[in-house]
Amino acid sequence: MDVKHVAKLAHLDITDSEVELYTPQMANIVRYIEQLNELEIDDIEPMLGGLTDEGKATVTIREDVAYGSFTQEEALIEAPAGVEGHFQVPKVL
Question: In the chain, which ranges are E strands?
Fold first, then answer.
């Protein structure tokens, strides 16, 4: 596995020590994916994103139920910082 090439494609600068660290990890990932290629899937019907082979929508498993949304106070309760009812975030520009 050419980790440096993959890093270059991802526009990442990595050190030689990172190459040594990531090479066996990437090899393990590739081996796992190769195991998926060995699965018998001839009898499994492919999913078409909720459509039948004819392009008609499939029946959903559950009913779509609308729920109430959070109040402003509930939305901010777990926020690290809030100011006057709004999320406070670091200035970007």
Answer: 82-83, 86-87
